[in-house]
Amino acid sequence: MPQGGFRRSGLEWFSSLPACLLLLAVVLFSTSSDIHNQMLRAGEQLWSGYYKLRMDPVQPECDLNRDIEAEVARELAEQAPSDDPMAALLGAHEKDPREVRLAIERSVADCRAAHASYEDLQDKLTPGVKAYRAVELFVADLIAFGLTAQRYVLVILVMLCAVTATLTRHHIAMRAMETRLDYTVSHTLQTIANAMLLGSSVIFRQSSLASSTTVSGEELLLHNFWIVGFACLTLASLYRLFRVPDNLAPGGNLNQAFLSVPLYTVMCLISGTYFALIGHSSGIGIYLGKMMELADMFLNVGLYVWVGMMLKQTRLATLVFNIFRPWRMPPEMLAVVAVLVAAVPTAYTGASGIFVIAAGAVIYSELRA
Question: Where does the chain cross the membrane (predicted)?
Answer without folding.
Answer: 13-31, 152-172, 184-204, 225-242, 262-289, 301-324, 336-364
